Amino acid sequence: HTQAAAGVAGVIKMVQAMRHGLLPRTLHVDEPSPHVDWSAGGVRLLTEATPWPEGDEPRRAGVSSFGISGTNAHIILEQEPPADPEGEAPEETGQLPSGIVPWLVSGKSESALRAQAEGLLAHLDARPETTLVDVGFSLATTHSAFEHRAVVLGSDRAALVEGLGAVVEGGSAPGLVRGVVVGGDGRAVLVFPGQGSQWVGMAAGLLESSPVFAERLGECAAALGPFVEWSLVDVLSDPAALERVDVVQPVLWAVMVSLAALWRSYGVEPAAVIG
User: In Å, what is the CA distance from 134 to each residue of 34, 123, 130, 142, 269?
Assistant: First the structure.
C-alpha cells in the first residue's frame, strides 16, 4: 500500500496517456467480470492500447484513489493547452508583463541581511542581462531562510533595486517588508500510518539493537496481554497473524508507540503523536 502516494501512479499514467494520445490497456485482466453488465453503458475494459484521438474538446479523464483504510478520492484531469511554438525568449524590458515579483533575502543577523542585499545588488550590476523572474525564482528556491528576512516586491527593475538599496541602508521603500522570525522552535509532530503499512519482520532489527524500543514494546505487550491470545513479539514474524485486523491494528499501534519512544531517546521531542 502506497499510503500518502495512493493514486499517484494513476495520475502519472493518465497524464502520459493524454500527452501521447494513447489509452493504455487494462493490466492483469484476462476477461471482463461476468458480474457487470458491460452492454448497459459506455464503459469497457481495454484489452489493448487504444488511440485517443484529438477532438473539439480537450481530453479529460477521471482518476480514483482507493485507500485501504476506506479513504476515497477522485480527480478530473484535463489536457494541458497547446504549448506556444518554441522561439527566442522575449527581451526583458524591465517591466513585468503582469503583476509583481518577490525577491527574498535573509541573514542570520541584521548585518548579514544587509550584506546579502548588497551582494545581490552587485550581482545585478555585473549581470544586467539577468531577468527579474529568474532572480526571484533562484532566491525563493535555492537560498536558505535565516531569521532576519526581507521581501522586496516590484513590477520592474528600478523598484526592486530601490527596495534592495533600502535593505542595505536600513531604510524603507515601497514594496519592502522586513522582519525577524520569533519562536521558530521547529517542533515535530510524529504522524504514524494505519492498517496496510505492516510487513513480516518489522521492528525485528530495532528489538535487537535498541533497548529503548524493546523496553517500550515490552510494556505494550504487557498491556495487551490480558486482552489477546497471541504474543506481540511472536506475531511480528507471523504472516498469517499480520493479515488479521484484530492483530495488526494493536501491533501497529505498539510499534509506533515504541518508535516515538526511540525518537524521544535521541532528543526529538514531538509536540504530538497522531495516527
Answer: 57, 13, 7, 11, 39
